[in-house]
Design goal:
Blueprint (H helix, E strand, L loop, with lengths): L9 H19 L17 H10 L7 H15 L6 H17 L2 H26 L5 H81 L3 H29 L17 H12 L4 E7 L2 H4 L8 H21 L3 E10 L5 E9 L13 H12 L3 E7 L2 E9 L8
Parallel strand pairs: 1-2
Antiparallel strand pairs: 2-3, 3-5, 4-5
Helix pairs in contact: 1-2, 1-4, 2-3, 2-4, 3-4, 4-5, 4-6, 5-6, 6-7, 6-10, 6-11, 8-10, 10-11
């Protein structure tokens, strides 16, 4: 299917009318570019003028055709008395062919016209053997090479401007994508923090409130209410800490210390209190000092926080689902070749008497995300009669994925 030719631009139509009118005026006044040529009648100079004028409206849509007709017309004009308007129209067609033509033609025309200019200059000097012969080469360059070079310069500037605009749009798009990803990542981090901080306390509250409602004993109810109050206060404190982290530091909010592995013993003490009614005991085996020594380099802060939250979530899951028995938390640290902090939490697996708190599975997902974000390894599942959570986190700052 033949492509539809777009309508001529109104500026091109106006340019054609003005150019042809100026050429007719010069011809009527007897102003010729080569009045001494008598090979053809004077009116013959109007034929190339009208032919080139008819090409002006097509200079944007059909640059190859207009340049071919323009070249033939300007050559034919050399056999007549000549018209300056014809030459000027040709220079515009040459310029338009470079600006609006295909990239290959736009690259070739300046080179081709430059070579033609040099060849015409050499031929004129060799033939006429006078210094004035150089003017022929100069005129050829002005008529052909000059417009082509001007068009190429303008086209390069336009393409550079388009490329710069595209780069700016791509940069803005990438910035928006980065912003969106940062928002999603921050929301996921906040969700993990909120879940890990509050789930432990709410699970204890749910278990002991169910026990208080199901067991008709004043002593049991009083003990359950005491645990519920303690976990409510601690949960509120954790929520305030999270809100403090989210506030603008410039608004006068004091910095709040992040949890670390130094607080594991207190975390297990709380778990012992919450799990006593379910027949659960909690033991911490911290074997880090035997491998690293107290004088070793501190662990990266993200690793300390992730390890603390993994242990906290593992204890919460044990309070919800573990059978009566001992929950063991083991920590080992190797700063040697592997450079890993390893966590191992074993919980009794089996039927459990008494009330249970519902689970959603978000805790395991959050633990896995924490480990993967730091470039570590995570595994959770049943291993015989225990439910085992195993995590390995990089212990060196340079190994932590950012």
């Amino acid at each position: 299917m033949t492509p539809k030719i777009p309508p001529p631009h109104r500026d091109d139509v106006l340019l054609a009318v003005v150019s042809v009118a100026a050429g007719l005026l010069l011809w009527s006044l007897g102003v010729y570019s080569s009045p001494t040529r008598n090979l053809l009648p004077d009116w013959a100079a109007l034929v190339p003028l009208c032919a080139l004028g008819a090409m002006e409206p097509l200079r944007r849509s059909r640059p190859r055709v207009t340049l071919a007709v323009g070249t033939a017309g300007v050559v034919a004009d050399q056999f007549t008395v000549g018209n300056l308007a014809t030459v000027l129209i040709f220079t515009d067609l040459m310029y338009a062919a470079v600006v609006y033509g295909k990239p290959a033609m736009a690259r070739r025309l300046p080179v081709t016209t430059g070579l033609i200019t040099v060849a015409v200059t050499i031929a004129a000097v060799a033939w006429l053997r006078t210094p004035q012969a150089l003017l022929i080469g100069v005129i050829t360059g002005i008529v052909s090479f000059g417009p082509a070079l001007t068009g190429a310069t303008l086209r390069n500037h336009r393409e550079a401007a388009v490329a710069a605009r595209l780069r700016a749009e791509q940069t803005a798009l990438l910035a928006e994508m980065d912003r969106s990803q940062a928002v999603v990542a921050e929301r996921a981090r906040m969700a993990r923090e909120l879940h890990d901080m509050v789930a432990n306390h709410l699970s204890a509250i749910a278990i002991h409130s169910t026990a208080a409602l199901s067991i008709d004993s004043p002593a049991t109810s009083r003990e359950a209410l005491g645990v519920i109050r303690e976990n409510s206060v601690q949960g509120l404190a954790e929520m305030r800490r999270l809100i403090g982290l989210l506030r603008d530091a410039g608004a006068g909010q004091e910095a709040v210390a992040m949890p670390s592995l130094d607080g594991l013993e207190a975390l297990l003490d709380q778990a012992r209190t919450n799990g006593a009614a379910s027949g659960l005991d909690f033991v911490l085996l911290d074997e880090r000092s035997g491998e690293a020594g107290e004088a070793g380099e501190p662990l990266p802060a993200p690793v300390e926080l992730a390890a603390y939250r993994i242990v906290q979530e593992s204890l919460t899951n044990a309070l919800k689902h573990a059978a009566p028995g001992t929950v063991t938390v083991r920590l080992t640290l190797d700063r040697g070749a592997s450079g890993m902090l390893r966590l191992l939490v074993d919980s009794p697996y089996g039927d459990r008497p008494g009330p249970r708190a519902p689970g959603s599975g978000a805790g395991l997902t959050g633990m896995r995300e924490r480990v993967e974000l730091l470039g570590g390894e995570f595994e959770a599942g049943r291993a015989g009669a225990v439910w085992r959570v195993r995590a390995a986190l990089p212990a060196r700052e340079e190994a932590v994925r950012t």
